[in-house]
User: Fold these one by one.
Assistant:
Number 1:
Amino acid sequence: MAKISRLAGLAADVALGLPVRAVPYEIRKDVPVPMTDDVTLLADHYRPVGQQTPLPVVLIRVPYGRAGAFGQAFAAPLARRGFAVFMQATRGTFGSGGQFRPFTTERDDGLATIAWLRRQPWCDGRIAMVGASYFGHTQWAVAPYADPPLVCVSPHITSANVTNRLFYEHGVPSIHTALSWSAQIGRQERPGLLAGLPDPRVKARVRRGLGRLPLQAVDVQVADAPVPFWRDFVAHAEPADDFWSQADHDGADLTRMPPANMVTGWWDLFLAGNLSDYTALRAAGVPARLVVGPWLHGELGELRTVVQSDVAWLEHHLRGGPAPEGAPVRVHLQQAGTWLEFENWPPPAARETVVHLSGGGRLGAEPGGDPSRFTYDPARPTPTVGGPLLQPPGKQADNRLVEERDDVLVFTGPALESDLDVVGPVGATIHVRTDIPYADVFVRLCDVDEKGVSRNVVDGIRRLDPRTLNAPDVEAGADGVLAVHVELFPTAYRFRAGHRLRVQVSGGAFPRYARNMGTAEPFGVATAGRPCRFEVFHDADRPSSITLTTLDG
């Protein structure tokens, strides 16, 4: 047992915005936990020094290692507040047995760990879980199923559904995220002092790998060895493949969920799923709280809010402390420098505002004009600029170079007479006809300032495939025209007076998303593509539009 002094955590407390006080704790390392298939997982047990009576346990299950930065950021701050913490390495990582096949074993392993914890004399039977990103997913994998239920959970910057919300966003493989993460987990346990730190050489390998065809084996080029997750990702992307159903938990009985605390960011790639989860939990009667800040995935501000909110959440649910103050929903209104509070999400007082695409590249109250046309060529795919990415750069970026391309339609509205606050879901309906059946429809909403700089705000994509045209979000009309409903990311964003709304319509956003090759070949093995000609209709009978959720000033 290693004794940790009070001074050891002061720097971390300051960085995380926690009170500079600490309870001495000790760590029992490499605690073995047997799984149902005789595999053993290892964990570190943090416990206040001198504590003799059983305590509730805060369980954290993580694939990135129990020590180092993740232990210091998530387990140690709670231990310094006097909580007993059990931080476990998931299967196949950092000493735990078995093979790491992400998202496929977390339910069984998590439930086995919870059952084992409840049998230990130092656990009083009450268990909470916390964590962000993948170790937010490990909470979703067990929280709806644990019996007795967990006391509370904090599934931050994650989603109950990882298939349609992350891996294959509305049918389109998110290859930048998947390959970047494959590079990380494929190299994270290699020896060396800098093994766990970001390496610009690896990022360069990822960029080169994303541009190669076929994609099936580019994991070897970025990680110097096959990465099981990448192989699963490219092998199970077809619409009828149910391999990833084991990773999705949004269909579980949510009335069994314990109280949930959630933090995410407007530029976090998990945002849409996180907000959908919150809405579903509240509809199921589950007490839940939500904070959404102006953050990209894993930014320091996001991390600080995660830890601070977890301390207050655990104090309330495990120790009977005061309930967190303020309304259940707290969101940052971007470009306004302020925070808004609501009783629910989406905001009950919000209303829908429909803006129509029309001829001549106009955006306004009425549709009209002849169809707009462009050709998408997978040999020169439309590039991605900014947006919610796993790693920087992301967020907002100047879109003018992309908007000058001949494969991007641009529709711009008049200068706003007053500020416009868009707070809530954003969606688009695009009436489109393509000359081949395989295509993607990418829609992006931008903010154009007085100098003409166009910055992305939210976007969304939908894959067209003959196998999925019966879905509710695609309606077939006359002459092969489809009404495609595209879900954009939600937001809270102020368009300033004098600025203009702009909508882009294109056939992709590469390499954030896999290029559509225009054929039935699976994306992992495709090497040859076909250009696709698009016609976008915006007349009175086929009114393409974008729908904003707005708040009155």
Number 2:
Amino acid sequence: MTISFAPLTLAPGMAQLRILATTDLHCTLLGHDYARNAPVPRAGLAALGPLIRRLRAEVPGTLLLDNGDTLQGTPLADHVAENWAERGGAPHPAIAAMTALGYDAATLGNHDFDYGLAFLRNALAGAGFPVVLANFADAGGTPLLPPYTLIDRELRNGGGGRARVRVGVIGFAPPQTVRWSGRALAGAVRAACILDTARRLVPRMRADGADVVVALAHSGLGERRPAPRAENVVRALAAVPGLDAVIAGHSHAAFPPDDTPGATLAGIPAVMPDFLGKSVGVIDLVLERRSTGGWRVAAHRARRVAPTGGEGEDAAVLRAAARDHGAAQARLAVVAGATSRPLHSHFALLTDAPALRLLAEAQRAAAERGLAGTRWAGLPLLSAVAPSKAGGPGGPGHFVDIAAGPLHARHLSELFPFGNALQVVRLSGAALLDWLERAAALYRTLRPGVADQPLLQPDFPTHRFDVLHGLSYRIDLSRPALYDISGRPTGPGPCRVDAVRHAGRPVRPADDFLVVTSAHRTGASDPPGGAADWEVVWDADLTDRDALADHLLRESPVRPDPIPVWRFARLPGATALAPTGPAARAHLVDAAGLDVAETGETADGFLQLRLRL
């Protein structure tokens, strides 16, 4: 059962175990936005530090765990990776900060492999805590890391004394990581299904004496019955017999929801504590001694707790990050080019956006050079890009907004935050049309003649809204989406995306196209466009961010004028409400092709636009 959030009262023979968890820190050690060179209040591990120390002090024997994607994601992380050989043995700042905070165990996420296996091993060598990963092995089948660890804890019990409890912590990461980081890993790693691995190893952990078993799953919630080797499986993982609690992550969402504190998955407590250090997950377990020996979970509660800002920042984390923070800032101040118009993503979900136009141009230019002289050079080449920042859970400031003028290295990180490797795939017109349908699932179905209908599906990740530059097409919101937000087919049609043209000619199912996109997109477990039929024809030895830097060197100053790629179909008498950032007011000229008007700001700070369809 789930108990209330009131202070726990323990009966004799019971003990309390508290588990604190972070996930998807992405090397956000400080509350600092490197892309904008501005502070971010109440974010980062430094802001979480005092909260973690207070929550741990409340309950003796508390465990502090991390759920992966820790070593990559900020320019500070890039600086560390690119200059590792010159560090003179200095530890990775994220690992040093975690060790200083007293983490008890951690697992890895997919992005922790982005810099290659040698770097990863060197970084982890400085960890003052075990790092576990159960479903990854080297090419010969030897586990990369211990699959799990057993931690003995002395807890307070209801009789005023102490109770010894053994906690097993097991870690998992998406098996797709092997494809996403394929170039960096160079065939040196293989991965197994998360669920199959859990079913095999959790009983072994119990046999090894674990009273409580906690899964660190760098995976999103997913479906109750996911496909084999699925990327997001936590709902199904929670149902594996023998698990007592699950930490989720990867999808940068939050669980339990704010309006459903204490919600469970398959009857056990679970937390996904947001991302970038915005909150810490807290699971409290009430343990009851079994008559046959050992312990069982008698009650539980789960919640997310965010720092208030009033507790300041943790001095140990600040010290761990100081050297590399300063070096990263200097690196980001270098001028990489110039733009003669502002680059932003405020209207990226409503029309073509200048920032996306630039990214598409940079990718396409790199692909054209890479394909020159090959047999693929004559095929139509499209460029697929999606907004890295378009509001959503990131809040009203989570938009690209770069002024006209010099472009610094920090702006490249804002435009392409993760530096994914580029690939060109060959696919059919039918697969291309399906890809567009998957992206169009971002929008709700709207009714003609109805005013102020919400435009966006609230849980659809905007970074999956791919726009295929080189085409023109229309999205008819009166038609239901052919896919739900998880990518599952919802029905036979009619298609929501129509009037799809290339070079003025309708796209036919049998047509051949090339699309330049990221390896992360082509390697997804639920990729768009029938990716089983995709053929990779160019596997670039550069990232999307590299391509942008090269494009700026060749073309600067750039002026990525919006050229309409797609539009909404007319919907007589209907209006829709769409959120954007308040800073969009300065760029309304870029919404000139839309019939939009402000309706004010929402309670959570977004500027709401009324779009007349």
Number 3:
Amino acid sequence: MIQYDEKTGVFHLRNEQMSYVLQVVRGRYLMHRYWGRPLHAFRDSRPFQQIDRSFSPQPAAYENDRTFSLDVLPQEYPSYGHTDYRIPAYEVRLKDGTTTTELFYKSYEIQQGKPALSGLPASYAGDDEAETLLIHLEDSKGKLAICLSYTIFAGVNVIARSAKIENSGTEALELLNAASFALDLPDHDYDRINLWGGHASERNMERVPLMHGIEESASRRGASSHQTSPFLALLRRDAGETQGDVYGFALVWSGEFSLKTEVEQFGTTRVVGGINPFEFRWHLEPGESFQTPEALLVYSPEGLNGMSQSFHEIVRHHIVRGKYRDAVRPILVNNWEATYFDFDDAKMDNLAACAKDLGIELLVLDDGWFGKREDDNSSLGDWVVNTGKLKKGLQGVAESAHKRGLKFGLWFEPEMVSVDSDLYRAHPDWVLKAPSYPVSFGRHQLVLDLSRADVRDYIVDSVCKILDTAPIDYVKWDFNRHLTDAFSAKLPPERQGEVRTRFVLGLYDVLERITQSHPDILFESCSGGGGRFDAGMLHYMPQTWTSDDTDAICRLSIQSGTSLVFPPITMGAHVSVTPNHQVGRVTPMQTRAFAAMMGCYGYEMDITRMSEEEKTEVRSHIALYKKIRPTMQLGRFYRLLTPFSGTGNETAWEFVSRDGQEIVLIYFKTLATPAAELRTLKLEQLDAAAEYEVTSYSPARGLSHDGAGNKSLSLEGKSFYGDELMYSGIEVPKIDTDFAAYMWVLERK
């Protein structure tokens, strides 16, 4: 999979889906040559043209060769301050204040498999699943050394990249920027896609033409955030969901990040991504090193759906770990929107009884079970059961669920502390707090300083004590405010620039210890919903609560945007009450259910207050979901229509089981329109020569008389060859109601 030609200095990383080529030029510099469809061999049919460019200076060794400048060289990990004016991959400040360094190629290694990154989440692979190229660079004056890591996987078009930066000199230096990757592309004929949003409105897709100059998607919030996602895609202007070249970039990182593109004067494009250099500082004594987070780079010649397939594959099989990686997830009910803080043993027991009757499999107790917690003003950090509410403790609630055959889950928010808490009164120095200024609040709470070992030990010990004293099957781990006042009372002044990064590294340490010591618990991460939905968190917790907005129509865009990078099995998606608690919308139960079936299905409502008619409908939805759950969670996912295209009025999703035997097709129409066009859905990735029988059809309420009167439109019980379903398609009957949803289930004969 990795070949090196000593004569040409060419490294060729290749699998059946793509080739990635880099080259050592002039014995010193690492140049990017090609990334795209697989090549039999790279023989330099498009040599790099060395041209005298005005105002592009030369390194000292090439003073008399005005055709050579780092300012135009397509580099793999460009430095700062030494003839390249574009975005650098790294920056350091030496003891004398110098920020200029000069990296030269030194050597390489090729290893089978995928080495782990110490203290960081990262992709993993066995020796027969991947190969890794390590390229060693060193500063010409011996001040630092950098090891670049490239892993190529068998069977998936992903390159995993990272960098390790070491102080190899005799004096301390300060690292000012440490990107995970840099990439130079030879032109700028691309559109740029990023995911933007806010709390309860995460991961909206924005596609704009790539512009000259620097554009950035970034977080400065201490977390990957609701506002932006650590993802970027560049795609050819004619690329769409199923055709055209797409380059995708996603970081395995849960903290502040930056993904920048720069189109420079000669029309080339540089992409640089990693930890946000804004406010980042890392002090390196001689011999110390800094490991960057990993970046996942995807190439797809088959549009955005092809890109998503690669991201889904790498996340499902090389990021997520543990017993739940390949296991279907339980259907749950969370008590939050049913009771908020007002619950007791009787209410939870009633929820458990109702859940069992409906076919639900997991009962989750959310916020309010600990300390003196009656609202969001107190008790975070005091992980002791409130026996005033729960007379029998967590043991009693768990046993109430277990005796009915349900699993039991619990909510935590361990990274936070309330001022009104025993923990804060005992350890006020344990929070992030600027020493000379008043502290700032979010949701009445402060952030614990996870850069401190004593704080991390407290979190691990207190959470594990709860997990070890009650039979808990599931944990929802929340994070409900972003970082401010990022100062640690434990670190010296020269290391205060490390606090934001050390907080995330400390979180990873906590998560590794808790999740590995409790491998049978299903963990779900949350940050006010989807405020920390990234591959870093999924390395420890195999699913994430996608958004606090549970409205089905809002979820169509939230979940479609999330699916650009992450597979449905990673998304928590629940049915909630109407009018919806976030936006007040009233939608049919079927529409709410079908939207939630895209991910890890559940209910976020007071199921004890449902009418008998509603309970009957819920039972039917749960029975249907249990039948199709392996396909929905473990199968392949395709976006046929998205709310980001056209009028945004239609969404269609296709799920194909891993063996190709079952296909689930779901269609949503947000608003009914007069004189509406009829919609045909053309399925993806079927066996053209196989027959598929429509075994189930769930029509929307509000069919027009034309549609309701034409029985043939239901298709149920009819069989079609795959080629007809792909090329002619399925007709959607005319709809005369808002917020409508259909489902077809097909079986290969």
Number 4:
Amino acid sequence: MGPFELPDFYCPYPARLNPHVESARVHTKEWAREMGMLDDPEIWEERRFDGMDYGLLCAYTHPECDAEELDLVTDWYVWVFFFDDHFLEIFKRTRDVAGAQAYLDRLDLFMTDDPPEPSNPAEKGLRDLWARTVPGMSDRWRERFTRANHELMQESMWELFHIEDGQVSNPIEYIEERRKVGGAPWSACLVEHAVGAEVPERVAGSRPVRVLTETFADAVHLRNDLFSYQREVEEEGELSNCVLVVERFLGCETQKAAEITNDLLTSRLHVFEHTTFTELPVLFAEQALLPHEQEAVLRYARGLQDWQSGGHEWHMRSNRYMNGGGRTGLRVSPRHVMGPGGLRNHVHVPYQRVGPLPLPEIPMPFAVRDNPHLEAARRATLDFAEAMGFYTLVWDRAGHDGYDLALCAAGIDPDAGLEALVLATDWLSWGTYGDDYLPAVFGRSKDFVGAKAFNRRLSAFMPLDLVVTAVAANPVERGLADLWLRTAEPMAPDQRAEFRTAVERMTDSWVWELANHIQNRVPDPVDYLEMRRRTFGSDMTMALARLEPGRSIPARVWGSRPMTALVDAAQDYACLLNDLFSYQKEIEFEGELHNMVLVMQTFFDCDAPRAAELVGSLMAARMRQFQKAAEVDLPALLDGVDADADVRASVAAYVVELQDWMAAILRWHRECRRYDEPTLRGTRWVAGPTGLGTAGTRIGTLLGRVAS
């Protein structure tokens, strides 16, 4: 008997079978034998290999490709599953961390034009596949596929570390890391190869294409976690499974955890559909994609869709997984349509009376310090806002004074000089005002076209040559032009470009919020958190931290898993904190949809106090992850790369900055007058969605540091 009954899977598309399935089975078995993958019965033997039926997997997931392409794709999947089982047997069971890393590093050498002689079946298979796959694709696709392969292999260490530590991830960490180690981005690259259509480079990094790939990845992995729970958790001692993650995080029974995992899977599939039908047409028009380019994107989307349907059918038939009692074929129930991700996300009634939200316990292990220039910064930012015209529309001076953004900046950077602190506070004022301005001006009229045009114009006020020729037509443009010249002048041209891109990503997210308002759509939990970081300005955070004078942190440390985990955990903590304090302001007074408390209410169909408890639990988990990254993972990384004293000092200083940042933001939320009910009921203009969190408190302070 299994640990739970398989849930009712959402299967909205029919699975189709490639007619070349039998030839793929014969070919790939012979190939696996030639590569040596059937030599060790402790890993694979012929009967088990036949039962796993990777030929059937690829015939279902790639139903339209020809026989030669199906053979190639099937060999890739045989290789990736062999790699996973080989790594499990040789390194996970033995806990050989050093040997595992050396094994993975050597595999990278087989994704080159001049690989060494292979020493095991995984290396031999990768060498053969690489030579058969990359010649017919573009250099950009090859770069993406190389990166996907590298991450798939290297992130196996993440699973090994969790087994070694006996640690189960928090839900946010799990979803992100699972994308890499689970291999679905790798599968998405192979979809392009199999359908014979590369996504055009100019839209490959766009939000719609990114979301298609990420929702595909999440749905593939969540489905696999449901089918593989018994094998991974009960038989292999694996800790990287979403059902287990939900069990531990919520303290619930395994059956309930499986149902919640399936609800998240359903929600992610709805996001895939929503993106396909509402965001791709806008992307095609904005980027003026030619017909053949549009066709390539749509063939890619259809290929991902085929993979979802076919992957489910294969899971129901393979002896690799627990699959008794599950259903095959099309399956769309009322709950799939009405539940998480479906119509439930479109029926929220705005401006409901909710009252002050009871706050959960908020962990904060770090003390806050103040900057001696606080009073001067308070006065200066009010004068800046008045000069830019902020008080002619949306804000007034008294309301802005009550927001006390200088208090936030002063706690974030207690050691900044006067000029730097003023600049940081002005950026906070501009970002918060801009986020309030867009819904006030465009939201009431649901003027999506006007909002897009407004957003596109902002780039003209951030010229790389520092010569602003555009004429500001509103306070947001006027303020940005002023801040850009004060901030970007000390930067090199490439640094200015990176900085501008980060600002653009933040302002683009404001338009995403407006689009959801027009559709009355409460976001999916994963989509919300990831876009919340963009509205918060995490890209800019990373860019500006690298530019701080005297900082010496090499790229291999900045781009490492521990550093990314550190920054993302801090960002999420602050975003969730803001959502708790701003709940009444946003839900009752603004008709807002972008608040994690409401997102959790919608997903779990629970009341606000329970949703707030869940948000508080996520905050606590992210704080624990931040502390572990700072105290354990980063020091281990620095030892592993033989970091010198300057690098270690720079990393330590950056950790302290993030600690100051989180402590200051919490203090600011408790003391400012932006969120208290008397102010909300007496304010002439109620500000727009998400408030300070969307403006990006970290952004303003780092900008001030760069300028100083």
